[in-house]
Amino acid sequence: MPDNQIMQNNLDLAGLRNQDHRAFEGLVEKYHRQMVIVARAIIGDSLAEEVVQEAWVSIYSALPAFEGRSSIKTWIYTIVSNQAKTRLRKESRLVSMNDMAEDIPSYLKNERFNDKGGWSSPPPLWDTDSPENLLENDQLKHCIEKTLELLPTVQKSVFLLRDIEQQPLAEICNILHISNSNVRVSLHRARIKLMQVIDKYQETGQC
Amino acid sequence: MLKCNEIANLASDYLDKNLSWKEYFSVKMHLFMCGHCKRFVQHLLSTIRVVQGMERQLATTGETENIVACLPDKNQT
User: Fold this and answer.
1) Residue of B12, B42, B50 lying closest to A135 (CB–CB)
2) Residue A119: which CATH number?
3) Among A56, A90, A124, where does a domain finish?
4) Would you state the pLDDT for residue A7?
5) Residue A67 lies in a domain
6) How confident is the model at residue A68 (pLDDT cuts 50, 70, 90)?
7) Is the Cβ pair A28, B64 closer than 8 Å?
8) What is the residue extent of each domain of chain B?
């Protein structure tokens, strides 16, 4: 068996297929946080941990049959994403996976620009644009958290997967089953909505 | 020559280097000349860094033991 069939991303594939607990712990340590983000993105914060717990049990049970046709990361993402979607349907709170018609951030609206496409209402100055300085402000962080929580499902999931988990766009398309252009538009809208929170906070001192 | 409203739409693709060479260069040229758009892109980048910093502060640990403790017996599917 070639080496890459035995070891993948420093994981012991042979041990995993044999349901070795130590190998499995390595897998959990490596991917649990990302799994929670995928689940959170699909089903929300309150049920995400539960769905991920169930997904880990499914993954453990299915490991002997893992053939390695896809990477183990893609395989476990698919499992957690499918379980989260199934749970979402059960909870009868199915959220449309198409956010494209939803509210467009003001920065992307025509009224922000003049007839020639220049700014009629340019971005306001911030007291500081240093991330380190901005992170020192607990009230601002609270405003950002609140906005992140309220983002439409797809925007939130794409933002978390791309900007927090650093997943490639193609991987995000696979996990969420949406097109590349949908991923890019959702990501951009999410980032701009979060930026507008800082704009507003800088101007008013409030969320 | 790209307009400011086009830059506003392309800013994420620019930061992610998800543009053709020609588009990337056009955005870069516009930013060189337009202070408002330069500020817009800088603020967008700062926003991403701020949220990344917040998530790092929230990183959770100590879940592994709970998960492994809940596993079924070996080969019991």
Assistant:
1) B50
2) 1.10.10.10
3) A90
4) 61
5) yes
6) confident
7) yes
8) 4-60
pLDDT tens digits along B25-50: 999 999 999 999 999 999 999 999 99
Same domain? A55 vs A116: no
Total domains in chain A come to: 2
| A12 membership: H or E segment, kind and range | strand A11-12
- Looking at chain B, the whole-number percentage of residues with pLDDT higher than 90 is 66
Q: With contact defined as beta carbons under 8 Å apart, do B75 and A19 qualify?
A: yes
The more confident residue out of B70 and A88 is A88
In this structure, the answer to whether residues A121 and A200 fall within a common structural domain is yes
Residue A100 lies in a domain: no
**Within 13 A of A3's CA, how many CA atoms are on the CB side?**
2
Q: Which residues are within 8 A (CB) of A108 and not within 5 positions of it... i.e. 6 or more apart?
A: A188, A189, A192, B8, B9
Domain holding A53, by residue range, is 3-90
Q: Do B74 and A19 touch (CB under 8 A)?
A: yes
Cross-chain residue pair A191–B44, CB shorter than 8 Å: yes
Cα A182 to Cα A162: distance, rounded to the nearest angstrom = 13
A-interface mutation test, from B13, B31, B67, most A Cβ less than 10 A away = B67
A191 touches B12 (CB < 8 A): yes
Spell out which residues of chain A touch residue B3, defining contact as CB-CB under 8 Å.
Answer: 113, 116-118
CA–CA min distance A195, chain B (Å): 6
- Is there a contact between B36 and A123 if contact means CB atoms under 8 Å apart? yes
Stretch among A136-140, A166-170, A175-179 having the lowest mean pLDDT? A175-179
Interface contact B18-A184, CB threshold 8 A: yes
CATH number of the domain encompassing residue A80: 1.10.1740.10
Is B61 within 8 Å of chain A by CB? Answer: no
